[in-house]
Amino acid sequence: MKDLIIDAFAGGGGASVGIEMALGRPVDIAINHDPDAILMHKTNHPDTLHLTEDIFKVNLKKYVKGQHVALMWASPDCTSHSKAKGGKPREKGLRILPWAVYKHAKAILPDVILMENVEEIQQWGPLDEKGYPIPERKGEDYKKFITAMKNLGYRFGSRELVAADYGAPTTRKRWYAVFRRDGLEIRFPKQTHSADGIGFEKWKPCGDYIDWSDLGSSIFERKKPLAEATQKRIANGIKKYIIDAESPYIVRNGEALAYIIQYHGETRAGDSRGQLLTEPIKTIDTSNRYGLVTAFITKYYKTGIGQGCDEPLHTITTSPGHFGLVSAFLIKYYGAGCGQQLDKPLGTITTKDRFGLVNVVLDIDGEQYIISDIFLRMLKPEELKVMQGFPKDYIIDRDYNWKKYPIAKQVARIGNSVVPIMAEKLVEANCPYLKVGERMLNMSIDDTQEQLRFA
């Protein structure tokens, strides 16, 4: 190619496939220190030159060989800048990674450099002896970096953008920067979607990307009981996203309601840690922290069962389709001294048992239902992949030698990735003159293999 394109922090290929989606051509050079990341990248971008090297040590000038570099994408590791790091000490080695961008910019002078990071990058400053940011010096290193880039002749612009506003089914929010030294205007993509859909298309619901042929397994039939924290999350989520929800998500078969459970952090009393499936998925990280909870419902034919805790319990029957499984679930997770089988008289109800939740009758489109069972499973890498904005044909389950990737590594590559749709939109806005056609489907797999991968 006359005009080279480089992905300086290639990972599994989120930015690279986004560039392909925008321009119809692969990146020419991809760099990453992680062999696993390079293996996945090479599987999907076989015509790219892959360099498994330290970003500070690699000599890009050697590989560019005097050719013109039109575009360089750079997404330095964000973990030591992110608020998700909490109160833990930061790693100096990771915090200085943006300076590698400066090093290569100075050496090969790309026309355009696009950067992505967490919004906290703008607070990048020195650390104290224990590795904690010094509050009064917040943003000091960030300003030095921007100034250094400007001294190389680059003009600079940045914005914080939410991927869901541009058609991705995730609400991942990131800082995006454009540096250019070719005299052309810095541009940011126009918003196309919004949460309420007023003036734009409505955000894409992550429920559209779930494999509804697999609803998981019943939480009541597990050989090993779920952890207490997980039980609380499920119970809280059932209340918030199904019982109390104005419009719970109805699974396509019409006999189940569903929501996503989230495993981030500890569960407090009343904490649901999840979301509706009518919303884009929240930020996907390197661990699989999302589970699908499906509550099966049956028609409510009996009368006199719905009630609160302030009255004697109505008659409990052993009929299938009643609330037996739900009562076992809610009694066990919401109070002590109340769990029991339904073929015995009910024990004493106290004000702490919250037994009223057992007897909730759901009104859906004028029909009354009760919950008969609850299923749980983790989201699959293929589901997370498309929710992150990758095309369906992007291969994440094997390398180019057909060696299988463990699920944990698949999820890690997705969580570390740039949202491809965001790379696509930013490149379209700033480098439309580099477009040579449309991205071709990944031809390294045929239709039969595609079906096996999604089975």
Describe it for me?
- There is one protein chain.
- The protein is an alpha/beta fold and 455 residues long.
- The protein has 2 domains: 3-204 and 392-454, Rossmann fold (3-Layer(aba) Sandwich); 212-378, no CATH class.
- Helix content is 25%, strand content 18%.
- The chain contains 12 helices and 16 strands.
- The chain has helices at residues 14-23, 35-44, 60-64, 92-95, 98-108, 140-151, 228-243, 324-334, 381-387, 407-415, 420-430, 447-454, and strands at residues 3-7, 29-31, 49-51, 68-74, 112-117, 155-162, 173-180, 193-194, 201-202, 217-218, 249-250, 256-262, 274-275, 290-299, 362-364, 367-378.
- A 7-stranded mixed β-sheet has the order 3-2-1-4-5-7-6, with helices on both faces.
- A hairpin with a 2-residue loop joins strand 15 and strand 16 (367-378).
- The chain is elongated.
- 41% of the residues are buried.
